[in-house]
Amino acid sequence: MSDTQETKTEAPDVSPFEAIRHTEEDGNEYWSARELAKVLGYTRWERFPGVINKAEAACTNSGHTAADHFRVSSYMIQLGKGGQRPVEDFRLSRYACYLIVQNADPNKEIVALGQTYFATMTRIAEEADMLAGLNEAQRRLYLRGQLSDHNRQLAATASLAGVVQPLDFAIFQDHGYMGLYGGLKTADIQARKKLKKGQQILDHMNSSEMAANLFRATQTDEKIRRDKIQGKASANQAHYEVGRKVRQTIQELGGTMPENQPTPVESIQQLKQKEEKRLKQGPQLSMFGEEELDENLEQPATNH
Fold first, then answer.
1. Which three-class secondary structure string do you get for 106-172?
2. Sequential pLDDT tens for the chain (304 residues)
3. Using CA atoms in the order 132, 135, 138, 143, what is the torsion angle rounded to 10 degrees?
């Protein structure tokens, strides 16, 4: 497609969006707009530039430079009798793809899959940037606070869908874990981590495992709201499917499955106690600000 040497990521049983991801020599990734259009079910290219235009506008409105994410490119195709002609294309960043699937035809089932895939990939990149300057203890404290907030939001969203009683919510959470952990339920994860009764699973995760669960929670919340899901069974299935998609993404990226992540020696409570001691010695020694430490990191009683 250009004179830049490149490879294309391909593997069996991977997301169709991952299968068309290209990687340049310098390690930068991109997607071809024409290939993305085909995957999204647009049989005629002429209908796709309108979607790209909407995505570019959304990119600009969000404060980004569209040209950084939507790069015009071209390549030659063969015609009859040995002739050739140039074909216009775009090299899309991950963020550009995310905006495109948000503006594509919502009636196409593959579009919903694309929204989950690129939202997860984008969230992973955003969290990686946020956590890059922190050590492992700091990452765990930050992510635990994020999970507390998003689990409360997920509980509220699930309640609106019909998951009301504590037992219903426990079953709902089990479905999310089963999708993400390859069939393991809450009790199975607790047993693998050798936790005592009353110990919270989330308090005994390293930052990578916690990040995977944060993606699960945020994407499930978005899916239930976006698809207007109603009923306990449908909510449970949605939670399972999102967990499974996050697991699939981790596998495609060559990451460690959450159930195989090592359990940290120190719990979140122990890290908090250390941080509180630092605060008593002087706020300047704190990992974060005092407001962060006052945040309630405990999970709701009905949340696993």
1. CCCHHHHHHHHHHHHHHHHHHHHHHHCCCCHHHHHHHHHHHHHHHHHHHHHHHHHHCCCCHHHHHHH
2. 443 334 344 333 467 888 899 988 887 899 999 999 999 999 899 999 999 999 999 999 989 999 999 999 987 777 777 777 888 899 999 999 999 999 988 888 888 888 878 877 777 677 666 667 788 888 899 889 989 999 999 999 999 999 999 999 999 999 999 999 999 999 999 999 999 988 999 999 999 999 999 989 999 998 999 899 999 999 999 999 999 999 998 998 889 999 999 999 999 999 988 878 877 776 554 454 433 333 333 333 344 4
3. 50
pTM: 0.58
What residue has token string 């699930």? 158
Q: What would the two tokens of residue 279 be?
A: 């605060």
DSSP states along 6-46? EEE---TT--HHHHTEEEETTS-EEEEHHHHHHHTT-S-GG
Q: Which of 9, 92, 5, 6 is nearest to 51 (CA)?
A: 92
Phi, psi of 9 (to 5 degrees): -75, 120
